[in-house]
Design a protein that fits this description.
This protein is α/β, with parallel strands linked by helices. The chain has 11 helices and 6 strands. The mean pLDDT is 90.
C-alpha cells in the first residue's frame, strides 16, 4: 500500500520469501554504497537482542550510539522495518539517535524515571515510530493538511495530489501497521515545501533529499521540539493507498477524517 515500499522490493526479493538470519541483515547493510553510520562515528552493526540492560550504555538507543550495535530480532517485522528505515534515511535516524542520548543521561543522573521523556523526546519518538513526510510544490495543498480540509484535499484535489505531492512514510512502526491497514491509521507528519524539480528525481534521489531536509529541520529546535509540531495525517486518504478510497463517500467518515486544531505550518 505505501508507495515508499518500492525502495524495499529488491531487498525483500533477495531474501527469497524466507526470513533472513541476522547475518543476512548485516550483508544488506554492507551492500550499501555508503556505510550507515552513527553520529558517534561507528558503522551500524546487527547484533542479537540482549537480556534486560544493567547499565545505561546497554540500553537500545545508547548501545547504537556508543558502539553502532543495533539489537535485532529475527522473524520480526518491527525490527525488519527499523533496519530498512536506517538504510533509507541514515542521516536522520542517526541524528534522532544522537539527540536522545544526553536527554536520557540527564534523566538518569537526576534520578528521574528513565521512561519519563521530555516533550522533545516524545516528538522524536512519535515521528520515528509513526511518522511520515508530506512534500509538495503547492503550498495550498500543504495548507489544506494543516487546516484539516480532508475531503477537499483528497477528493477535490485528487489530480493535484498525484502530480504535486508525495507522502513518504518514515516510521518503522507505521510500515508494520501497513501490512494490515485499518481505518484510523494516522501518521505524525512533517510538511515540506519543495520545488517542482523534486518530482523529476528518482526514488533514491527523493529519499536522499528528504533525509537531508529532515536533518536540517530536526537540528532547529525552534521548528520541531514538541509533539504538536507534527501534523496529524489520515494516511489511508492518499489516492490508491486504500482500495476503497476511489469512492467519494469514503471521505465522509468523520471519525477518521476529523476536524481539528490548526496544525503546524509547512516547512520551507
Amino acid at each position: 500500500m505505501f508507495s515508499t515500499l518500492v525502495a524495499f522490493e529488491s531487498w525483500c526479493h533477495s531474501f527469497k520469501d524466507e526470513w533472513p538470519m541476522l547475518d543476512g541483515y548485516q550483508r544488506l547493510l554492507e551492500q550499501q554504497t555508503s556505510p550507515v553510520m552513527t553520529r558517534n562515528g561507528f558503522p551500524l552493526r546487527i547484533v542479537p537482542q540482549a537480556d534486560k540492560p544493567g547499565h545505561f550504555e546497554q540500553h537500545y538507543a545508547p548501545r547504537i550510539y556508543m558502539s553502532g550495535e543495533i539489537q535485532t530480532r529475527t522473524e520480526n517485522w518491527h525490527d525488519f522495518f527499523q533496519l530498512l528505515t536506517w538504510i533509507m534515511f541514515p542521516r536522520t535516524k542517526a541524528l534522532i539517535n544522537e539527540i536522545h542520548i544526553p536527554l536520557a543521561q540527564a534523566r538518569l543522573t537526576s534520578g528521574v524515571e528513565l521512561g519519563r521523556r521530555t516533550p522533545l523526546e516524545n516528538m522524536l519518538s512519535l515521528f520515528d515510530e509513526g511518522g511520515a513526510v508530506v512534500i509538495s510544490s503547492d503550498e495550498k495543498l500543504l495548507q489544506m493538511i494543516s487546516e484539516f480540509q480532508w475531503k477537499p484535499l483528497f477528493w477535490q484535489q485528487r489530480e493535484a495530489l498525484q502530480q504535486r505531492l508525495r507522502c513518504i512514510v518514515f516510521g518503522h512502526a507505521l510500515y508494520e501497521k501497513g501490512l494490515e491497514p485499518y481505518i484510523g491509521m494516522t501518521a505524525n507528519t512533517i510538511l515540506l515545501h519543495c520545488e517542482e524539480g523534486f518530482f523529476q528525481l528518482s526514488n533514491n534521489e527523493q529519499l536522499a533529499w528528504v533525509d537531508g531536509a529532515l536533518v536540517e529541520l530536526l537540528a532547529d529546535r525552534e521548528q520541531l521540539s514538541v509533539p504538536k509540531d507534527l501534523a496529524p495525517f489520515p494516511i489511508l486518504g492518499m489516492p490508491g493507498w486504500d482500495e476503497d478510497n476511489s469512492e467519494e463517500g469514503y471521505y465522509d467518515n468523520h471519525h477518521y477524517f476529523r476536524a481539528g486544531r490548526r496544525g503546524p505550518k509547512p516547512k520551507k
